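note to self: dont lose this again. the chain is below, predicted strucutre after it. 395 aa total, dont forget to put it in the shared folder this time
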Amino acid sequence: MTRIPRILLITSATMTEVNGGTVLLRGLIKNIPNDKLCWAVVGGDSRRIPGWMQGYRRVIFPSIIFNRIIQALARRLPIARLWGWVQFRLYPWRVISKILAFLQEEQVEKLWVVASGQAIPVAERLHRQTGLPVHVTVHDDIEGHSSPAQAALLRDDFQRLLQAATTSDLTSTSMQAYYEERYSAPRNPLVFWNGFFMGEVLPPPELRQRVRSIGYAGNIWSPDNFRILLKALELMNKDRKPEDAIRIEVFSERLQKHFGLTSPYLIYHGLVEPEKIAGRLRKCDLLYVPMSFLTGKAILARTSLPGKIQSYMKVQVPILAHGPEYATHIGFVRDYQVGLTSTSQDPGIVAAELLGYEAAYDQRMAASQRSRELSLGEFSPEVAWDRFKAVLYRI
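---
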């Protein structure tokens, strides 16, 4: 039997928000015994934690500087760079000594950092001061959801952390290639990403002959894609009866108003718990996975693989992957044959592609069956956990 070391998990948030990263971590952490994992939260402005983390000993260091309103104001003012220094230099310096005392008290044998925000400099300093082995998990590149100024402040710490990693997991082979070229690190990473959809794989859904509903679960990070798709639906729906109109159904904690996404074909349902989302998504005809066409998001699109893809696959509804040709998720959906890919920013072309796929009922059924086979095999939680623990528990 594999010996399980005492692990300190380091995150930059309390994981109360339901997104691809927290769903994945929840699926992994539930397999780790309570007495083998403790937790340090270095970020956020609240001590509130999700119920599934209640059983683990923890230290939390909230600060007003991480309040969303204050963060938004700071990004718009001339103090943006100074604010980044406070988050990624001053704040880590202030919490390090307290975390060192905690990990000594907990007799920690290995660090596990989810490489995001201030967790990066904190973990890098902890590793340097303790010499403990460290496992680095990267869901998104530092330039993916950070401003260029913030990414610049994090880059040196991120490189040192990758180079020091005893073990690591990355979301795609394209991320691995990018980091090997840019940082010559990490060594022999596990390429791993699994949506860890909560619950069992359900019986196959009944796919309708006509497409009426395109589902989307999660926060909206690429409004440019949604605008293209909504315009495509407007073109399609001009020639369809009202009862046959195609709509996008969004299941999200919030629909960011500043994105300006308004359309009679956009239906917002609010947040649905991970355990219950399957029943809602199964009623859809396609499930949407966008990655932005914007040049500022090119690294994110090239390296990251949205976790919702494999969650969608467990629902067994065909996927609509939309984004630039170089995007990782486009290649994934093509390679595994689990849906339709569109790399166009022209609503007319997207509309034609959707009409063609609607008519190809046999292809949609085959994509559904393929998703089921993969969800019960290569991407099952059991197989995924066996792969992950073999790396995480290694010292």
